[in-house]
Design brief:
About 75% of the residues lie in helices and about 0% in strands. It is rod-shaped and about 85 Å long. It is an all-alpha fold.
Length: about 120
């Protein structure tokens, strides 16, 4: 009796991986073994960097808030401590956006937190 292989499923698996490898350079886009390794590596980087992206954005927001707050004579840590004490429920993302795009509103928040 001949060996039974599920050619349809294996072709579908390969097609899926080669589709993900589309846009790669050289053999990475059309040679199965190279494409498979490339796609696995890429998916690993994508998973890792979704976490890193959040970290990087938080760091950016903190830098923007710090720069804006120093113009009003406070440090970042003093400002965040005062924000928590005053009970303002604003995220760092919102504060950074205000500091960048609406300096008057941010100045009002700093004045409220100071006084």
């Amino acid at each position: 009796m001949p060996r039974s292989v599920n050619k349809v499923a294996s072709r579908a698996r390969k097609k899926k991986v080669l589709q993900l490898a589309k846009g790669s350079f050289g053999r990475r886009k059309n040679v199965w073994t190279v494409a498979k390794n490339s796609v696995e590596k890429g998916l690993g980087y994508a998973y890792r960097d979704r976490k890193t992206k959040k970290r990087n954005f938080r760091a950016l927001w903190i830098q923007r808030i710090n720069a804006a707050v120093r113009m009003h004579g406070m440090s970042y840590s003093q400002f965040i401590g005062a924000v928590h004490k005053s009970g303002l429920e604003l995220s760092r993302k919102t504060l950074a956006d205000l500091a960048l795009n609406n300096p008057e509103a941010f100045a009002a928040i700093v004045a409220q937190v100071k006084g």
